């Protein structure tokens, strides 16, 4: 899948992904994956539906979806490089992901965010109606201990 919007493109072609750039952002600039190993990023990309955002050939954003393509999708690792923010790219990226033809008719979408609630709310996400039903096994220091 490839969509164009002016000088920007969103593509699901994994061969276009700049994995060193993605790793650098996640391991040094994200709040959720600091110190993530390069091999872990590679493996996560291999096993996800990925969306790259590009200006020409330069990658400026990324997101990935973990899904069975039938019932559930987890949206994660969403980012736009800081110098490209305020151009509507994050909105276009989330809109593109949530309207992707292979991700329609799912029973549930999930994601975690500490700072982008208003962005995701525009696309139907909301705080879990019954958070007491959700459980997690979370190891926030997993990459620190490798």
TrEMBL record:
Gene3D superfamilies the record matches: 3.40.630.30
A single MF term (Gene Ontology): acyltransferase activity, transferring groups other than amino-acyl groups
InterPro entries: Acetyltransferase_Butenolide, Acyl_CoA_acyltransferase, GNAT_dom
Pfam families tied to this protein: Acetyltransf_7 (PF13508)
Protein origin, superkingdom: Bacteria
Annotated ranges, domain N-acetyltransferase: 8-146
Name of this chain's protein: GNAT family N-acetyltransferase
Taxonomic classification: Bacteria, Pseudomonadati, Bacteroidota, Cytophagia, Cytophagales
């Amino acid at each position: 899948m490839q969509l164009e919007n002016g000088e920007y493109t969103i593509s699901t072609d994994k061969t276009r992904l700049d994995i060193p750039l993605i790793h650098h952002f996640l391991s040094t600039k994200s709040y959720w994956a600091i110190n993530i190993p390069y091999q872990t990023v590679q493996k996560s990309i291999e096993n996800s539906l990925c969306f790259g955002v590009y200006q020409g050939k330069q990658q400026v954003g990324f997101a990935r979806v973990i899904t069975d393509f039938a019932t559930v999708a987890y949206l994660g690792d969403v980012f736009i490089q800081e110098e490209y923010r305020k151009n509507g790219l994050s909105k276009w990226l989330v809109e593109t992901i949530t309207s992707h033809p292979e991700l329609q008719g799912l029973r549930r979408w999930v994601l975690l965010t500490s700072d982008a609630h208003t962005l995701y709310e525009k696309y139907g996400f909301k705080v879990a109606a019954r958070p007491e039903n959700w459980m997690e096994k979370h190891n926030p220091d997993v990459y620190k201990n490798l």
